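User: Hey, quick favor. My workstation is busy. Could you predict this chain's structure for me?
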Amino acid sequence: MGLQMVNKVEADSPNRCQGVSRNGQCYNEKENNSDFCRYCSPPDNTDHTRNYRLTKFRAKLEHHIESPNIKGLREEVGILRLLVEETVNKCDSEADLLLKSQVISDLVMKLEKLVTSCHKLEYSLGDLLSKTTLQSYALKIINLVDRNFGDHPNLHNFINDMQNILGEEDEIDQPHS
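Assistant: No problem, here it is.
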């Protein structure tokens, strides 16, 4: 693919580039959807470029805004864990590991902060159950099973197994048979 030539235009052409240099206004033909030729395009920090980038990414932005998981950070935690794993796996020797130690350390610190934020967010949204709440639900389930299946021969074993799973055998009262 060779260089594409830029057409020169007359001084009064409506398609004349609006770029100005020390020699005056550029005589090149402007690009489509721009006021400038490819050589005189403004730097990337202009309003025009920022607006283009916003337009370019608007669909992705709207998708993320509308996502029901917008308040969750679990996917981001997964991405960081993958990055840590891939970075460590690329190390073939102790020397490689030492060379990558700063990157790995940085990723681990970011991961720790993200996990902490994720936990706080889930707790504030009520997505986490405390141990006490979980034990309360378990007791209600055990009592429900006892009321409906109290005469089943294996019920006592089931209740003991549930208490062992919860690990707090002494805090859960035995249901009445």
